[in-house]
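Why do we care about 3D structure at all? Because function follows from shape, and shape follows, mostly, from sequence. That is the central idea of this module. The next example makes it concrete: a single protein chain, its amino acid sequence, and then its structure expressed as tokens.
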Amino acid sequence: MRTADIIGTMSELTLHEAVALLERTPRILRELLGNLPERWLGEPDTTGGWTAGDVVGHLISAELDDWIPRAEIMLRDGTSRPFDPFDRYAHLDRDRGVALSTLIERFAELRAQNLARLHQLVRDDADLDRRGRHPVLGDVTLRQLLATWAVHDLDHVAQVYSSLAASQHDAVGPWKAYLGILLRRDAAAGTRDDRE
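And the structure:
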């Protein structure tokens, strides 16, 4: 087998591989954020960014309005109907004043339901190559949607860690010079991508 063939094969995410990561995210957030003192939770990851609670709220929005609805459109309508736009900020009003523990549990419930639905939708590996139409990005496959869902989780878990670190930005004093998570936060302030 040629190297190009091996690389091509390695880049094709399977349903099992995507689910292996997606099912972990609620547990990670529960363990990381559950019963954490408030002192850790109030800072956004960057100036104008999101707190840990904002991130969990955004993940809830994605469970409600993004991943499974788009997979259903893709499998039912193909590229004939573009996906509905996704409101990245729906959580800001919806979740105002809701306890973080409640948000985490809601996210865990929705994720479990969505993974069960995903198993109902995807009958075999060939379904992962079905296409849909993103309103901005154009034609995409279900496999790409699943990979994006998994990496989206990783992106936002990293954002949670950054927000926690931000709560200690000043407390670390001169050691900040050795803490990449704080240095990256300072460098990235205001450079987020809004194409989701």
